[in-house]
Amino acid sequence: MMKLLSHTLIAVTALISLPVNAQNSTTRQNVLLITIDDLRPALGCFGDKTAITPNIDRLARRGILFKRAYCQQAVCSPSRLSLLTGRRPDTIRVWDLATHFRAAAPDIVTLPQHFKNHGYQTRSIGKIYHGSGKPSRDPPSWSMPPQYDHVRDPRVRYATAKNLQGKGLKRAASESANVADNHYIDGIVCDAALEALKTFKAGQQPFLLAVGFRKPHLPFCAPQKYWDLYNRNKIPLPASGTHPEGAPELATRSWGELEGYTDIPDNGQLSTGKVRELRHGYYACVSYIDALVGRLTKSLEDLSLADNTIVLLWGDHGFHLGEQGLWTKANNYELSTRVPLILSVPGQPKQGISSNALVELVDVYPTLAALCRLPAPQGVEGINLQPLLDDPARPWKQAAFSQYPRAREGNRHRGHGEIMGYAIRTSRYRYVEWRSWQSQQVTARELYDHQGDPHEMRNLASQPGHENTIKTLSRLLATGWQSALPVATEAGQ
Q1: pTM attached to this predicted model
Q2: Nearest-CA neighbor of 358 among 304, 429, 425, 457?
Q3: For the chain, how are helix, strand and coil distributed in percent, rounded to 5?
Q4: Rounded to an integer, what distance in angstroms lies between the CA atom of residue 297 and that of residue 411?
Q5: Which helix (H) or strand (E) holds 343?
Q6: Annotated active-site positions, please?
Q7: 19-397: CATH architecture
């Protein structure tokens, strides 16, 4: 195992670096990091036949699209921290929305901090880290205080008179209003980001600008013109509306986030009309964000920054819209853990390509560092994806790893929960072990064969004939992410 690991790490994590003093602003790449909350691959470039996303599709045609990218935990804070630290949830000890990663790992150098330490201006506009106060601000990461990192003002969440007269943050679960893009917070974030790009253009330092959009996170509020792009009755209903056959009860808890909106029944029983409305709202929000992404990428071109700015667009986790009888995220299934990931690098020889390689959000940090010729970050648990830009079909990871905690009973976990669900996704299977946090005893298993069951509707773990598959996947899960890394080739990368 150690021999394999050493060969692997030499092969795929070696980063080309130049001394900082040898890299000036004219040769160093800028980075535009676009973070989108709750965005599953509901994009035209990912094959979604409903989504209207011309701007993100155009970005994909200028770079590489990773078809099989996975988050490390399907909820905001742990997922974002996995990308921003290059570590997995068990390493940074963040499994919920409240814990600040610096409490457990105060000395970790984050992705933006690494760039800042090597001469970059780093800025955060919108939702990048999760939370309020120190968790969302993290001064070591940024050259100046973040903007719009935590916004709770209902006046930029809603627009209609009915919703503005409500109470609390949860009013209607969706809203269409005849307002400008910058009535809502994401349009405000976009305007601020455009001004930041102008400032960077006038400056002398390379920059890393992180822009975080909140939609399509609930509530599904978007200007009317984006709703008008879609015919509600032509948006397909969920392909599967019931929980997977044979799935353990704790695997299918995913309702809490939708609770509490004024137009959502307390019992969770949604009419077909409400399901259609929510799905319509989600797609409207996706198109809204697509338009804002288009403004950002156009600004790069207008300011003559496009030729030396790397653009990386990612979603922090997926989202269920009624499929498998589930809503929102917070589980280990494909629709919650698979995320969009698009990387556009100026001068990239191969453009408009896609890769079926299994990649993870922890891979972003070492990849961006390598592309910008910075020293390799220390202690990260992802690998440099650069080799896939040249050869997207090359052999890669055996599996992607995700996890999610649960309490033994009830819809909400307490702290990190009493049970942890550890999942791996291979090219064919999704395998999950639900383990007692203290004893590590496996209390339940799930096995889904994507070859014949792409919607993960039949848990095969207790069915005869799959014992060897379970044994193999259980061993891979137990040995961890290191054992799933690509094997070194003679060419060496």
Answers
A1: 0.93
A2: 425
A3: 35, 20, 45
A4: 41
A5: strand 341-344
A6: 76, 130
A7: 3-Layer(aba) Sandwich (3.40)
